[in-house]
Amino acid sequence: MTVEIRVAEGDDVLRALAPIGHYFGSAGPLAAERWQNVTSVLPEGRTLAALEGDVIVGGAGAFGFDLTIPGGPVPAAGVTVVGVLPTHRRRGVMRELMRAQLDAVHERGEPLAVLWASEGGIYGRFGYGLASLTGDVDIQRAHAAYARPLEWSGEARLVPLDEALGPLQAVYDRVAAETPGMFSRSREWWRARLLVDPEWRRFGGGEKACTVLEVDGRPEAYALYRVNFGFEDGVSAGVTHVIEAVGASPAATAAVWRFLLDVDWMDRVKASLLPLDHPLLLLVEDVPRLGFRVGDGVWVRLVDVGAALAARSYAAEGDLVLAVGDGFCPWNDARFTLDGSKTTAPADLRLDVDALGSAFLGGFTVGQLARAGRVKELTAGAVERADALFRTERAPWTPEIF
Ligand SMILES: CC(C)(COP(=O)(O)OP(=O)(O)OC[C@H]1O[C@@H](n2cnc3c(N)ncnc32)[C@H](O)[C@@H]1OP(=O)(O)O)[C@@H](O)C(=O)NCCC(=O)NCCS
Asked: What is the span of the domain harbouring residue 143?
């Protein structure tokens, strides 16, 4: 039987999430309240269902937000809840969903799509490139001293989640605007995803706590975290689990991490999804004790290469001609200058669209891609010139999995 892809509406939105829900452990229909963090922020018309007859066997969705790229925010599709039931795997259902989704994103005029991949082997074939890396830390508090005294004269305040929206949004928006990889959060997003704490999502840990650091009443940093209490053999085995810590200045970032590292009774502090250039690496005295472990970050797909190149800023003067290969979205299979125009001029570099996605946020250099055989230099010195142009001040950072 063939599979048909349709936009899910009404109750079918939740049904279209059941295939991915299966892999989170749901055996049948989903409990609506457990998926509210997704359904309440999935824009209408952006959930796709794959139907075999009347039965939904696959689904895929896209959030709509502004993603910060070098140069500022651009509209992007935040791809999510991609799933196909195990009864229908490897028959091309996801491929059909990706086809319909990328065509729809292209029609909406969003220049790029971004996602977190469950496995590294899935999305390259659809033109997504790994665009950032992340760092996890697991720090024993006994070895968490800073190398230099903290210079900070603000106040820390515990804030109930239902009063946290204002200060958190104020800090987050300032940082998101200048950090590639961060995306805009609506008030609904904050309320549905960050400022809620249902018991079933604590997995035995403490309640979600929120601390805001202020200077003269102005919020400069915040931390969302759980204190996971525990004692073993008479000594503390507690863990402060950091959900998200953001500072709007170097001093505020140092201060909010000092706060987290100093919560008494805790033996360790754990955090994940940190950017690779996180200041902690230079703040602490004993770097190996951070247990800094690198993992994969977000994947970026340039859906409209011309529009994406035009929206990006470049760190140097000059231009390049890129010969872009794109087998899945043939409208991108062309030569481009950095202002986004198509050209017939001879190319300086040849690369596939996924490699361009990897370089786009600044998470990988063009030189790295060339050394991995993912970029071919056609004009002498073009890789070096590309690196001067694509260079960014900051490593990309996406602090939340969606
Ligand atoms: C991943 C998943 C959506 C794939 O769905 P599917 O319908 O079986 O995929 P398709 O049959 O359309 O496969 C399309 C291509 O992707 C490949 N592929 C699919 N899943 C893959 C995986 N996990 N790893 C590597 N390749 C994969 C297929 O081999 C096929 O390759 P080809 O067309 O180039 O030969 C499905 O297995 C699933 O729901 N997995 C669990 C949930 C999940 O990981 N979702 C993604 C969240 S980011």
From this structure: 134-295
Residue 247 sits in the same domain as residue 309 = no
State in Å: Cα 41 to ligand 1 middle. 25
* pLDDT per position as a tens digit, 314-342: 999 999 999 999 999 999 999 999 999 99
Distance in angstroms (rounded) separating the CA atoms of residues 300 and 329: 14
Q: Tokens at residue 76, please?
A: 């992007």
Residue closest via CA to ligand 1's atom 46 equals 82
- pTM for the model stands at 0.98
Question: pLDDT-based confidence at 1, cuts 50/70/90?
Answer: confident
- Residue 231 and residue 286 in one domain: yes
| Residue from 31, 24, 21 nearest 57 by CA | 21
The ligand 1 atom nearest the CA atom of 115: 48
Cα 283 to middle of ligand 1, angstroms? 41
327 lines ligand 1 (CB under 6 A): no
Asked whether residue 64 is domain-assigned, the answer is yes
Q: Which of 295, 313, 341 is where one domain is finished?
A: 295
- State yes or no: is 402 an active-site residue: yes
Q: Are residues 94 and 234 in the same domain?
A: no
**275 plus 311 within the same structural domain:** no
Catalytic-residue membership of 123: yes
The residues, any chain, with a CB within 8 Å of residue 50's CB and separated by 6 or more, are 3, 4, 5, 56, 57, 58, 59, 84, 88, 93, 96, 97
Distance 48 CA to ligand 1 centre (A): 16
Count structural domains, the chain. 3
